[in-house]
Write a structure and sequence with these properties.
There is one protein chain. The protein has about 290 residues and is α/β, with parallel strands linked by helices. The chain has 15 helices and ten strands. The protein has helices at about 40-50, 50-55, 70-85, 95-105, 135-140, 145-160, 165-175, 180-185, 190-195, 200-205, 210-225, 230-235, 245-250, 250-260, 270-280, and strands at about 1-5, 10-15, 25-30, 60-65, 90-95, 110-115, 120-125, 130, 240, 270. β4, α3 (about 70-85) and β5 (about 90-95) form a beta-alpha-beta unit. The two termini are about 15 Å apart.
């Protein structure tokens, strides 16, 4: 049995893949970020989950992709904890969460762009991830993301710049009372997730000139600030996109790439964990460079 984990700071999604690779079991636990939780607490979260305990002796391979797993020390910590619980696992791979996005779409050198709730960009050389910009999060960066798009829409709404023919629909779909929005922005633990939810309105109305302009501007901001940092790699390697925003914005992305004299992308993955699991089921494991 193969166990795959996709862990953020708040939640961790686990997928157990049977030996014949036909059946999967899904489990969710608290996020296991080694930068936030100590070893004892991480092990406790795993041990307390009944499903993970039921299958612990059958797990032979583990692939753990997690926030906070970007140093050798943190990778070793998680690896040792997993080895303690899953004693029959002969192969344990621990990588940063960005690697899951990369491996969900390619095993060969490529520029991989992540456009989901947040955004990121990296070059994968076939073995390692290289980033030219520091990821500074949703307050300073995140161009092209759901957070970036949602922020543009909300700003336009509260500056009374949303056209009347869209304003009614927007107010009907979302409760945009100023005090409620302020509470969500400043009292919530995940304000970026709240903001990103508004991005879907733009895609529901993507043919409207107002929404179309916001999407195009946001994608172009991502290209200018993130993708063009890899100008040398753009010449020689393909460009792929991972994440729900990238998936739904395919036509916008390729249009903006063309406008910037950059080759179009022909590969988009909406859900990286699901895509990675599919690679396992189709016997693509031998292509994974981290194994």
């Amino acid at each position: 049995m193969i166990l795959v984990a996709d862990s953020g700071s708040t939640k961790c999604d686990w997928v157990l893949v049977s030996n014949n690779k036909k059946k999967t079991e899904r489990v969710r636990t608290k996020g296991l970020n080694p930068a936030i939780l100590n070893e004892k607490d991480i092990l406790k979260v795993i041990q307390k989950n009944k499903d993970l305990n039921d299958y612990k002796d059958r797990v032979k391979e583990i692939y753990f992709f997690g926030a906070g797993c970007n140093t050798e020390k943190s990778k070793k910590t998680i690896s040792q904890i997993l080895a303690t619980q899953f004693v029959n696992a002969k192969e344990i791979v621990v990588e940063e969460d960005l690697m899951l996005a990369v491996l969900s779409i390619t095993s060969k050198p490529a520029i991989v762009c992540i456009l989901g709730t947040g955004s990121n960009c990296c070059f994968f050389n076939g073995k390692e991830i290289h980033q030219k910009n520091s990821a500074m999060g949703y307050l300073l960066m995140d161009e092209g993301s759901g957070n970036h798009l949602g922020k543009k829409l909300l700003r336009a709404y509260f500056y009374n710049k949303v056209p009347e023919d869209l304003k009614f629909s927007l107010e009907k779909e979302f409760k945009l009372k100023p005090q409620k929005v302020i509470s969500k922005l400043y009292d919530s633990k995940l304000p970026n997730t709240y903001i990103a939810k508004h991005a879907r309105f733009l895609f529901e109305n993507k043919e409207h000139p107002f929404c179309k302009k916001i999407i195009e501007e946001s994608i172009n901001d991502f290209i200018e600030n993130q993708l063009k940092s890899y100008n040398d790699e753009i010449i020689s390697y393909p460009i792929y996109f991972v994440g729900s925003i990238g998936y739904f914005a395919q036509n916008f992305i390729n249009k903006q790439l063309k406008n910037n004299n950059i080759k179009e992308s022909h590969r988009f993955v909406r859900r990286p964990l699901e895509s990675f699991i599919q690679r396992i089921k189709t016997g693509d494991m031998k292509l994974l460079p981290v194994v």
